[in-house]
Amino acid sequence: MYSPLIVAEALLNGLMLGAVYALIALGLTLIYGVLHIVNFAHGALLTVAMFGVWLLAEHLGVDPYLSILIMAPAMFGLGYAAQRFVIGPASHGSDNSILLVTLGLSIIIENGLLAGFRSDTRTIDTDYAFQVVELGPLLLSFPRVVGLFVALLSALVLWAILERTDVGRAIRAVAKEKLGAALVGIEVSHVYAVTFALGCACLAVAAALLMPVFYVSPTTGRAFVLVAFTIVVLGGMGSIVGALVGGLLIGVVEAACSLFFGDSLGQIGIFVIFILVLLFRPTGLFGARQ
């Protein structure tokens, strides 16, 4: 048996990693809440953001955390253009077509990254990757502590945008009633593109938080998006609060399973929870009952 100190450290580090998972899931659940579609390109776009962070660090010497200031606007613009000029027009207003378009987009992105970067993994060497923060007798990973605070701050900024700005009010209006929003003069296609762009900006922040401790390859996003889908289902499709709570919970579960069953089985608990939620509470913890 492990000592209580080791268990506490593992669970706290898992909780902090879960905050970054939640940030990835926030983008996914925001897009679902407004566009009412599952974005199959989410993982591939996360990979693009991670490669962007790596390129800035490798060629320009930009610290991964500072790269947020560059990558967040860049991914916002990419997401806006992808939705406004590719996904929207190609889907012709059909939800089924949107699913196929995002799936095709993910395949194109992954193969483009494979052609450009090959299948090699890339990492960023930083002075603080293995630093720890002492919290009494507990030793916490410095990058994960940063990840927790930045993820929570990003979630707060996203909440402020949705609740306190005209753009946010337009997004909430379109999410509730698309036709009614259009009748009062809201440009629905623009709102869709902004929502998709905000989801991509969340991915940029998450990528910057992940790169000091994770590697990137053209298929890296797949693993993270599987966890994000689980978080969205657990928290409730379209629920911002659910994504946050679900991400923190999933991080703790993954840490506990890694500690007691080994790293190779670290994610088994995540998918057990996924199945149980689908069986017993398909609307999720914070999802609206049908």
Give a topology summary.
Blueprint: H1 4-35, H2 42-60, H3 68-91, H4 95-117, E1 132-135, E2 138-141, H5 142-164, H6 166-176, H7 178-183, H8 188-210, H9 220-235, H10 240-261, H11 268-280
Antiparallel strand pairs: 1-2
Helix pairs in contact: 1-5, 1-8, 1-9, 1-10, 2-4, 2-8, 2-9, 3-4, 3-8, 5-6, 5-8, 6-8, 9-10, 9-11
GO cellular component, one term: plasma membrane
GO molecular function: transmembrane transporter activity
InterPro entries: ABC_transp_permease, BCAA_transport_permease
Q: What features would you describe in this structure?
A:
The protein has 290 residues and is mainly α. The protein has a domain at 27-220. The chain is 73% helix and 3% strand. It contains 11 helices and 2 strands, in the order H-H-H-H-E-E-H-H-H-H-H-H-H. It has helices at residues 4-35, 42-60, 68-91, 95-117, 142-164, 166-176, 178-183, 188-210, 220-235, 240-261, 268-280; strands spanning 132-135, 138-141. It has a two-stranded antiparallel ribbon with strand order 1-2. Strand 1 (132-135) and strand 2 (138-141) form a beta hairpin. The protein is globular, with a radius of gyration of 19 Å. The chain starts with a helix and ends in a 10-residue tail after the last helix. The model has no long low-confidence stretch (mean pLDDT 90).
